[in-house]
Amino acid sequence: MSAIDDLPPLRTVIAEHGLSARKSLGQNFLLDLNLTAKIARSAGNLEGVDVIEVGPGPGGLTRGLLAEGARKVFAIEKDVRCIAALEEIAQVYPGRVEIVEGDALEINLARLSCGPTKVVSNLPYNVGTELLTRWLDPVVWPPYWTSLTLMFQKEVAQRIVAEPGTKSYGRLSILSQWRTTSRIAMELPPEAFTPPPKVRSSVVHLEALKEPKFEANNKRLFDLVARGFNQRRKMLRASLKSVAPDIEEKLLSAGIKPTDRAETVDLERFCALARILESS
Known about the structure:
Blueprint lengths: L9 H8 L11 E2 L2 H10 L7 E5 L5 H8 L4 E6 L5 H10 L4 E5 L15 E6 L5 H9 L8 E9 H8 L9 H9 E9 L4 E2 L6 E8 L9 H13 L5 H4 L7 H7 L13 H13 L1
Parallel strand pairs: 2-3, 2-5, 3-4, 5-6
Antiparallel strand pairs: 1-8, 6-9, 7-9
């Protein structure tokens, strides 16, 4: 795809603005507009939808989102060097780009949009997991966003969609699958980026559920999961022994063998255990 608008190719934008990727910011720029358009399309229909994009860099994905019909893109950028490039995009799409300079970890993203909202981002590797866990555990559910379409290192993406009994299954799997449906939408090789990272990347699409799949108190559930997977080689009767004096009895009541390890217990049984502990 040679052009999707009247703006210059991304390599030209990077050269003109001196945007060499910085490792300290977790930057790896995706310059192929075919791929950025494909990521934008994997988020579903964007017509009339506001999009929050974290770490737009030179704006390749931003342009794809706008070309796919996003009502407005809120571009959250920490790197001041990228602001001028993003302002050039805003000029071509008047009224449809709002640049928010700052750290996404310190900004209340929920206050940016007042309409239907999706989050679509090629996340900086160094903050991706932290942002995801915040989006999945807001104060109120359903959240302000209807879906998340996010790029991660492939191994992180595999953890999000992993099934019980697999080596990738863990805390992030349960956190993601309790309140969303998730799938890997596409994979990208290192050579798609500048500079090429040492790992493959994957785009994950998560759709918010109106209610969690199984009833449970989120704080109780996440505490259990954290304790279980922090010592994943231990049997649950050992890793959860400080939770309740009769933990073995409660494990059995939830359909969990005291000798089971966290990696073999599915979401439904973790939620059952959380309910039993909460009621007692």
